[in-house]
Specification:
The protein is mainly alpha-helical and 206 residues long. It has one domain (6-203). Helices cover 48% and strands 2% of the residues. It has seven helices and two strands, in the order αααββαααα. It has helices at residues 6-28, 34-38, 49-55, 75-89, 96-117, 156-177, 199-203, and strands spanning 61-62, 65-66. It has a two-stranded antiparallel sheet. The longest helix is centred in the N-terminal third of the chain and has 23 residues, at 6-28. It starts with 5 loop residues before the first helix and ends with a helix. The chain binds zinc ion.
Amino acid sequence: MVSGMLAEHLVYSGALAILAGMLSFRFAGRDSSWIIIACAYLPDLDKIGDWILNSIGFTVLFEGHTIHHGTFHNIAALVIFSVMIAFLLHPLGIRFADSLIFAAIGFGAHLFEDALVYPSNYMYLWPFTREKLGLDWLPMGGEESYHADFFHIANTEVLLIGLILLLIVIVVRTRVEGSGWVRWYLPGNFFRRETGTGSEEEKRPG
Ligand SMILES: [Zn+2]
């Protein structure tokens, strides 16, 4: 049973979100990159998807198979989930294009992170090819030998590389924008339609 990459997905997706959010704010004046972090574990729903659907009375088959680990680890699932999320968040005040892009980045980041660690594990490019792919750039060996040696939630090497990346983007964004960017990751600001800039200054007395 695979329980790998538990903490790593959060750290890598967090780093990517801060970077993507910085670009979004620079070019569009708003930042909904929290969606990337919210989607960090979405593909792994295929571990429990069949169980959830069964418990409410459904069985869904993909190519004659029930949902199993790997079913959502491809670009077809990426597109379907991103469109669903964009429709779900639109009535709550998030622009359709924003949630579509950030959900696709978040979902895609998970697939990329899995590919970084595991050799030829999933059919990432399905339906274009059924070939099982993997980059295996980070030296972890096969999925069987992935070892979550850091309190059972992460592999120390993979986690350390992610934490360094996270630290770098935090420093870069703080140098560019000051510390105010943190506000975009506070849940109270997720569904605000306005950019939120300037409100902090106005509240200050004097
Ligand atoms: Zn996964």
